[in-house]
């Protein structure tokens, strides 16, 4: 079996390299991010890419670890499901829709996706959810994800951390937790 | 939906964007700073994975298993020949997957899948337009983690060499179409040959060396001589190993 | 690997497609796509054995853990059928219709025929799936045998499969029924039938073909196997409902559970899933319909925990705190290891005085 990687995200980013999007390195001078909808403290030494108010962070490359910080207005919260969010939604309901939106993003469903845990969490002064998930790529590489989300009057916020289980996930997990701890909607 | 070739497409994009300039091998920063800091005595060759495909007139690629096996055999022959009379490390053995336990085999397979990901990311940072990432090449510190340390114990070696490859051979119909298209000012992609090589320190998982070579049209991994030439290009700057050009002896312990 | 001994007899071209098929087999296992249930697996294989006895050891049926309606055959004799499709069929004769059809794609080397027809084409819209008939992981619908071959090959598979069905003693009147419900689902859910060949016969044409075959060959007798099928597939049906809800596909749950006689095929716990589907649809009146469905589940299956949680959440959201706490207490008594225990305890503590 050929092992040359099929990495859609890598290729997409390869294709857009040199276009308008620009990666910047995070240092002490620019680690505090204040956007239109949220503020967060970013990890120094990592790289960041900003697009439409959403952030993509990585240290070694986006398939080795990535943190994605997203804001969605309520009416665009779950576009694949064609569902909206609201400030009054229970965290368990937000978690349910987040998981469904993730599974709906895969053409074959997501047969290998397993929920390791799903529990409430405090984030940005709100009660949100924390999903811990795992799945396998088609060449058998285990990937783990943490997804923290909540909704307020302004919209729906989702912070995601994704990395291979082998070596990378645990190594950089603490960075994600720090980012979440610093997050304000 | 063409069969997806993310990594291969990435390397081809790099070859085209860089104007086919010779890629620079990446060396772990500890070796760059202190070349003698990691004396490698012996290196084992991990299972070689080369995929040789035929491209139809319509541009669809389909693997030809006997061609892939031939190419893998050619790569192994090209690599398992150095006896290192000048010292330094050399490839002397191959990992025999059948001698591993099922858990070890599964672990090896998963680490090879991780190598895919690490190598793709390590090369992606070199793309023009990713200049902000170039520090990752200057301070090359990629790793697979220490999960392969069982191979150090099992084989009594310090490191493992991983080789991946893809070779796309075009049919006559495709070549004819390319000629016609060129006459009309259109570009029709033909075949390519890609080799990716990585040297992994089994104790730490550090990627000590990573290189790749791309040929768009002239190489043929099914041919031993052509394969050897491409392998030589790949193994330039391989740490501690005598150039393959001087090596003629056959494999064996 | 299944059928490996046969590869020596294959032409070079056949060996190529066989090899690609084997790659997909390995990937399906490696990426955890398969549904691990030995009893179900054995049952499906036994039916295949009845249909293709001379291919024992060559044809290998596996169940894929996916709620989508899909089945496909690979040129090396691997045949895959989704849990989603199995759960939606009514009886063994319908499953045999699908398996008989898939088997023909293998025995008549349709992948190879398709490959020969497509190989010389210069059309750039030719995909890998179209060339080989072998789908890619991540897009298994891409060359689904239900949607993926040309008109002539699908017709042959229908006709030859029909004969296999009859020879194995199945009730052939079930053959058109199999595709009738597929069509109903596609229409009700407004799904675009994902055909990759302009000559591919639509589902309606398949139904018409089968009706003509039934008329031609008669339908006297034949085994349906409703009870045997129910005993093996019953648990899968409830799981499918849960899978659909997890994917947010509440419309599919509503379609299934509002069919006539739905609750003769689905267990009484399905009332809970019906309630959840109404809750997720969230149109006017759905909240009341959801509550009624949950209450029916509680009445029919008092030891089944999830409807208590659902009633508790509804009571909480409508300001009935005491009632909500009562429902949550009962839920946690029945399911002390519930994966969402932390949420429910939090909600309960927020409402407790």
Summarize the structure.
The complex is a heterotrimer of chains A (185), B (253) and C (353). With 185 residues, chain A is of the alpha+beta class.
What would you note in describing this structure?
The complex is a heterotrimer of chains A (185), B (253) and C (353). Chain A contains three helices and ten strands, in the order αββββββαββββα. Chain A has an eight-stranded antiparallel beta sheet, sandwiched between helices. In chain A, strands 2-3 form a two-stranded antiparallel sheet. Chain A has one domain: Protein Transport Mog1p, Chain A, CATH 3.40.1000.10. Chain B is α/β, with parallel strands linked by helices. Chain B has one domain. Chain B contains eight helices and eight strands. In chain B, strands 1, 2, 3, 4, 5, 6, 7 and 8 form an eight-stranded mixed beta sheet that branches. In chain B, β7 and β8 form a beta hairpin. In chain B, α3 packs across α8. With 353 residues, chain C is mostly helical. Helix content of chain C is 61%, strand content 4%. Chain C has a three-stranded mixed beta sheet, with helices on both faces. In chain C, β2 and β3 form a beta hairpin. In chain C, α13 packs antiparallel against α14, α15 packs antiparallel against α16 and α16 packs antiparallel against α17. The longest helix of chain C is centred in the C-terminal third of the chain and has 21 residues. Chains A and B meet through α1 and β1 of A and α1, β3 and α4 of B.
Key words describing this protein structure:
heterotrimer, A: 185 residues, alpha+beta, Protein Transport Mog1p, Chain A, eight-stranded antiparallel beta sheet, 3 helices, globular, B: alpha/beta, 8 strands, disordered N terminus
- pLDDT < 50 stretches of chain B: 1-5, 82-89, 241-253
- CATH class of chain A equals Alpha Beta
DSSP E strands of chain B, number: 8
Mean pLDDT figure of chain A: 88
H/E series of chain A, N to C?
Answer: HEEEEEEHEEEEH
Sheet with the most strands, sense and barrel status of chain A: 8 strands, antiparallel
Strand arrangement, largest sheet of chain A? Answer: 1-4-5-6-10-9-8-7
Question: What overall geometry of chain B do the principal axes of the alpha carbons give?
Answer: globular
**Count of strand segments of chain A:** 10
Question: How many domains is the backbone of chain A divided into?
Answer: 1
DSSP helix fraction of chain B: 25-40%
**Largest inter-chain contact set:** A-B, 35 and 49 residues
Average residue pLDDT of chain B: 79
